Amino acid sequence: MSKVQFRNIDLNLLIPLKALLHERNVTRAAERIHLSQSAMSRALDRLRSELGDELLVRVGRNYELTPRGSELLEELAQVMPRLARLWAGETFSPAQSEGHIRLAMNDYASSVVLVPLAEICGRLAPGITLEAVPWHERFHEESGLVTTHLILSPSPVPSIFRVEPLFEDVFLCVLGRKLRHHRASLTMKDYLSFRHISVETQPNQQSLIDRPLGEAGQQRRIAVQLPYFLAAIRMLEMTDLALTMPARIAEHVAERHDLVSLKAPKEIPPIRYSMVWHPRFESDSLHMWLRETVRQIFRPAPRSEGTRRI
């Protein structure tokens, strides 16, 4: 945008714009920022003219946002706090901040990342709301990525996005209570002799387990395929099926339910997760705090000075 264009922008319209998009009603928007209804109507007319979009359209007895209006509402949620901090000259303070963080991740990543992140936010940033949405391999191709602060992904993404390796985990095979296996390890022959539960949250796509098996010319027998880990774990308590899971949750499941877990065959490689974000969030202070907080979850805790190796 040129300097001339920027000088022609009336920044005073940002406040009524945010109120209108949030309330989706001229009267309520006017009350929200203490304007008269006629003044808010004039502001809406100017915004429609300046932005070249209706922003609000009548649907039945109510008003709904246009696609452009929805996009602007998401943008304003990021821009307005930045402007306030810029004007006040304040540094980011988690304890005093309010905001909404949207993360995309699968069931496993939510148990590994979201659980400790919720504890940290509750303790250090109680004004922050966390929202988790389901991740899938084509998530980065959707417009939702622009409004998603952070993605926890085990798959490659286009180079336009910022990517930072986060952690890796090996796969363990948890044996159902009725499954008889008397050795302390698993060969590929053992593994393929089992009947398996496959937890798939993405229909019609090979899993991170079946894909490398296929590349090695092997195929396991799937007895049950479902999208729910909780139901799969309960099946282990009363069947002779096997469930392959990342170690961070498999060890907990095996211990809690008194089941046996063994390392999966070497043909199934470790799973590697990265955090992914859109460049628009790169310098956002809330996002920078979020990224550093997620990093700290996976940093080993420092040993106390009094601890010595024996």
UniProtKB/TrEMBL annotation:
Pfam families: HTH_1, LysR_substrate. Keywords: DNA-binding, Transcription, Transcription regulation. The keyword Transcription applies. Residues 9-66 form the HTH lysR-type domain. PROSITE patterns: HTH_LYSR. It comes from the Bacteria. One of its GO terms (molecular function) is DNA binding. InterPro entries: LysR-type_TF (IPR050389), LysR_HTH_N (IPR000847), LysR_subst-bd (IPR005119), WH-like_DNA-bd_sf (IPR036388), WH_DNA-bd_sf (IPR036390), YidZ_PBP2 (IPR037402). Belongs to the LysR transcriptional regulatory family. This is DNA-binding transcriptional LysR family regulator.
